[in-house]
Design brief:
Elements lengths: L10 E9 L2 E9 L19 E12 L5 E5 L8 E4 L8 E6 L2 E6 L4 H4 L6 E11 L5 E11 L21 E2 L12 E4 L7 E7 L3 E7 L13 E6 H6 L7 E7 L5 E7 L2 H6 L7 E5 L8 E6 L4 E8 L18 E5 L8 E5 L9 E8 L13 E4 L4 E9 L2 E9 L12 E8 L11 E4 L4 E9 L5 E9 L4 E9 L3
Parallel strand pairs: 3-9, 10-12, 23-28, 24-27
Antiparallel strand pairs: 1-2, 3-30, 4-7, 5-8, 6-7, 8-9, 11-22, 12-19, 13-18, 13-22, 14-17, 14-19, 15-16, 15-21, 20-21, 23-24, 24-25, 25-26, 27-28, 28-29, 29-30
Length: 478
């Protein structure tokens, strides 16, 4: 049993974040297992002892985010689950199976569509966890329904992530809690998108590109590379180039050179071999997944997405031949002609791609990081040591604003101080991020300084009034 599960203590998790000239935050409350008192304060004299209560919070958005899922056990070490309420709610349907809850909003319902841009509704589902000892934990799952049709909830890339140092962090899922689908887009045939995830070791990590059910599942327009972050740092290739010549057909004299560094070109010419640990290449077969075996030590991995290149094989596709193509160059008066070497992205698509990362081992976010957001429940303050916003890094101190508000409304917090960090952006899975595309803030790890409890949090910024709404707060099992 984790340390935060001591009897009778109520944890108040204040999840907060900021961007330029904006303050935003959110709150969730948890009463950990360990108490012998029922929720109404009476003693439980029955056969099964009440271990305590646990509150979980998740959010869906009208027209945008129609479903949400999470760990139904919330990090509690229990052996079974019993749903106490009907799974058919006022606004949607709840399904719990294999330790995972999944709530689906009935988006076409009249009372859902009637929610205005600034309105919030909620519904509550109660269920009970039973421990091996026979004790039970009462769980209250609150689903917020936001009436904001103008916000895209997609888990999309944060631009610019064209370098490994700007890689977007990913929190990998597991068999009980699948990882979120990460979405991105190559804005040009030369564009490249970088992402980073971590592992505690001794596991298999599965990466799926355009998996079943995604909009890109029938396309083969992207290459996914997986790198060992340590090896990439020791043997970098991002600034490497390959020479494309313009030369004389008579003498083979080089007349000019163009230096190209398209990732697929560098891969085919051997520049990545020291750090590359896996690849999904649409030019060779229909395989859409790759498994990475992780040794006993913790390790970071980087994912790169790029377009493939056309080859000069007989089939004129990307499956055979050399990626360096040749064509007739401008003729010179003194010889029989020239040849130009060049590359062409094929197939190329500017549609949205999707991929997911799933691990088989322990959650690496159960290990405290120096980049963890620290929350002091007594002082109602939170410290975000490093927040990436608009490719700059900030240290942020936040404080709760005590105001009267509806029970259905999330709490509001304000910035106490912000400080621009004099440091270059570096990729780190624990780094807090703000995405201006969809106004979503991610705090991969929030630590309660009073108890040591850890959470992974997502929030939605409302720039107009400087508030933040809690989208998801997942306890991290320790």
């Amino acid at each position: 049993m984790n340390e935060w599960m001591k009897a009778g203590r109520v944890l108040m998790l204040v999840c907060m974040l900021t961007g330029l000239n904006a303050a935003f935050a959110s709150t969730m409350s948890i009463r950990p297992p360990g108490s012998s008192t029922s929720p109404d304060g009476s003693s439980d004299s029955g056969v099964a002892q009440v271990a305590g209560t646990l509150e979980l919070v998740a959010t869906v958005i009208k027209n945008e985010k129609l479903e949400v899922s999470g760990n139904a056990f919330g990090g509690v070490d229990a052996s079974s689950l019993t749903l106490l309420d009907s799974p058919a709610g006022t606004y949607g349907l709840l399904d719990i199976s294999n330790g995972v809850y999944r709530y689906v909003l009935r988006n076409d319902a009249q009372h859902v569509q009637a929610l205005g841009p600034n309105e919030v509704a909620q519904e509550v589902f109660n269920y009970q966890l039973t421990h091996a000892s026979g004790a039970r934990t009462d769980v209250k799952l609150t689903i917020f329904i936001l009436g904001n049709p103008s916000v895209s909830f997609d888990n999309v890339e944060i631009e610019f992530n064209d370098r490994s140092s700007d890689a977007n962090p990913i929190h990998a899922g597991n068999s009980q809690q699948p990882g979120q689908i990460m979405r991105g887009q190559l804005s040009a045939s030369s564009d490249q998108d970088w992402f980073i995830f971590n592992s505690l070791g001794n596991e298999i990590i599965n990466i799926a590109l355009c998996p079943e059910g995604t909009s890109c599942m029938d396309e083969n327009s992207w290459v996914l590379y997986v790198f060992d972050a340590d090896q990439l740092a020791q043997h970098p290739h991002e600034d490497k180039t390959y020479p494309l010549r313009w030369y004389s057909n008579d003498t083979f004299e080089t007349l000019a050179v163009a230096h190209a560094n398209h990732p697929y070109l560098l891969y085919n010419k051997g520049f990545m071999q020291r750090s590359l640990v896996g690849i999904i290449d649409p030019c060779f077969g229909n395989r859409r997944t790759v498994d990475i075996g992780v040794g006993p030590q913790p390790k970071n991995y980087l994912v790169l997405i790029s377009s493939p290149l056309l080859r000069d094989g007989e089939d004129k596709d990307c499956a055979n031949g050399d990626v360096v193509l040749k064509r007739d160059g401008p003729k010179l008066d003194t010889d029989n002609g020239t040849t130009e070497e060049y590359i062409v992205a094929y197939p190329y698509s500017d549609d949205q791609y999707s991929f997911s990362v799933t691990r088989t081992g322990a959650d690496p976010f159960a290990v405290l990081s120096p980049l963890s957001t620290q929350f002091d429940a007594v002082g109602r303050r939170a410290s975000v040591p490093m927040l990436r916003a608009n490719n700059q890094l900030y240290a942020v101190e936040l404080e709760q604003v005590v105001t009267a508000q509806s029970a259905e409304a999330p709490a509001t917090f304000a910035i106490q101080s912000t400080r621009l960090l004099d440091a270059a952006a570096t990729a780190d899975p624990y780094q807090a991020t703000y995405n201006p595309v969809n106004q979503i803030v991610k705090l991969p790890q929030v630590a309660d300084t009073q108890t040591g409890a850890l959470f992974s949090v997502e929030l939605l910024l409302h720039p107009g009034n400087g508030t933040l709404t809690l989208l998801k707060a997942e306890p991290i099992p320790q």
